[in-house]
Write a structure and sequence with these properties.
By secondary structure, this protein is mainly beta. It is 0% helix and 50% strand. The protein contains no helices and 19 strands. A hairpin with a 2-residue loop joins strand 8 and strand 9. It is globular and about 50 Å long.
Length: 208
């Protein structure tokens, strides 16, 4: 099964059963489709796939969120007219609110039953650890595991963009610097010699 990272690109050849998938953490995945028979879940045309777990596929249809049961394809509404975008998250999906608030990205962690837990700032899932990382009060970088929240680091300026991979965290800061946090919580500022608007963290701790 695919892990719940955002897929950036897919490549293959017409006569090949092997395909490569570029993931949001900068890594690649390789599969031979001849080795497995995928289960098919029918989704309405035009929906955006947000994420999935063992029982549910989470999708966005316009501004409406739905949890689609993988067993029988039944869709349950989990947010109507609320979200402009979505992301994968452990235990549900991240619903990104509309309208967009300048300097912030208000989000909800929404489970299959439609329970929405508001998050105070930007958020992203760390698929390798099954956790959620988000910003609080702009500068605190918080990790949530099974509802329990731990501050991993405090940035010297507002964090405007996050990337995570295997316990590593990278943040683009409002003052155009980058912050890297290792799995033990040690943080360091990265001087890149140019303004930083977005970052990508790899599982080895390298920032792109």
């Amino acid at each position: 099964a695919l892990d719940p990272l955002a897929i950036r690109s897919i490549a293959s050849q017409p006569a090949s059963t092997v395909f490569a998938v570029g993931m949001s953490d900068g890594s690649f995945r390789w599969w031979d489709a001849a080795q497995f028979m995928p289960a098919v879940v029918a989704l309405p045309r035009g929906t955006i796939a947000c994420g999935f777990d063992e029982a549910t596929v989470y999708v966005l249809d316009g501004t409406d969120g739905f949890a689609v049961a993988r067993e029988d394809g039944v869709a349950r509404a989990i947010g109507s007219g609320m979200y402009r975008d979505c992301r994968a998250a452990p235990g549900g999906m991240l619903g990104i609110h509309m309208p967009e608030v300048p300097g912030m990205t208000p989000m909800d962690l929404v489970d299959a039953a439609g329970k929405a837990s508001p998050l105070p700032g930007n958020a992203i899932a760390d698929a390798a650890r099954g956790t959620l990382v988000f910003t609080a009060d702009g500068k605190a970088i918080v990790e949530q595991v099974s509802g329990q929240r731990t501050t991993r680091a405090t940035a010297p300026a507002t964090a405007t963009f996050l990337s995570v991979a295997n316990g590593w965290i990278a943040a683009a800061l409002e003052d155009k610097r980058a912050l890297r946090v290792d799995p033990r919580g040690r943080a360091e500022l990265i001087a890149v010699g140019a303004p930083v608007d977005a970052v990508t963290m790899t599982s080895s701790g390298v920032i792109w």
